[in-house]
Design goal:
This protein is α/β, with parallel strands linked by helices. Helix content is 50%, strand content 21%.
């Protein structure tokens, strides 16, 4: 059973890595167009929250093309900022933005000592991990006592927006993304992963079960996206 689970996780990780490698060069363009630019505002809000913590060392996990890392660097210029991602082609895009300290790393096996960071951020990446609960446990390990976690990800809005949003996710978004990136399957996967990811208070409960304290949830654009924060005990 354990070996089978490990195999399934490895297959999922390889599949997700391949998806992002295929769309890396057009990832930013697709994000901005498909969200009508609102994703920029979401990252600014995330950076504002992190800035209020006054961290000295930040790990931006699943940093991807580096958009959140770049926003964090501007908001927290004195902090050490490290970006980590398991997809090298995505990091190549991040390097083109002159971001230093970029590391190829699997979130389930981070190459950092215990208590290395007082803030860890994950934007639109946690639900893509082979085991997001395993990733949260690993995040706890590298956080300092009292350190902060911030997760920015897509969510599911409440009715009456829910039905319209589901139609957009499963029908309109994959078609538009196919025109922009030439890759439909990655965005079909995106819709399915959003549906299956814990949302709102359910995510807060999961964070508490893993051992994080004081989880908070902030709905963005009516719940289309969500901002979660928590602290390590």
């Amino acid at each position: 059973m354990i070996a089978g689970m490990a195999l399934d996780g490895s297959i999922q990780a390889n599949r997700v890595r391949a998806y992002f490698a295929q769309i890396a060069s057009r990832y930013d363009l697709a994000n901005h167009l498909l969200s009508c630019g609102v994703d920029v505002l979401w990252r600014l809000r995330a950076a504002e929250v992190v800035q209020s913590w006054q961290p000295s060392a930040i790990l931006d996990l699943a940093t991807g093309s580096g958009d959140l890392a770049r926003t964090l660097k501007r908001a927290c210029p004195k902090a050490l900022l490290i970006g980590a991602d398991f997809c090298e082609p995505m990091l190549q895009v991040a390097r083109s933005k002159r971001l230093p300290n970029l590391v190829v790393a699997d979130a389930l096996q981070l190459p950092f000592p215990n208590a290395s960071f007082d803030a860890v951020t994950v934007a639109f990446g946690l639900r893509n991990m082979a085991s997001w609960t395993g990733a949260l446990v690993e995040i706890q390990r590298v956080l300092t006592p009292g350190g902060h976690l911030l997760v920015l990800d897509f969510g599911m809005p409440e009715p009456p927006l829910l039905g319209l949003y589901r139609f957009y996710l499963h029908h309109i978004l994959p078609s538009l993304a196919s025109l922009l990136t030439g890759e439909r399957s990655a965005y079909t996967y995106l819709a399915d992963s959003i549906e299956s990811f814990p949302n709102g208070t359910h995510m807060c409960s999961r964070l508490e079960a893993i051992g994080f304290q004081h989880p908070t949830y902030e709905a963005l654009l009516g719940g289309v996206a969500a901002l979660y924060t928590a602290r390590k005990a």
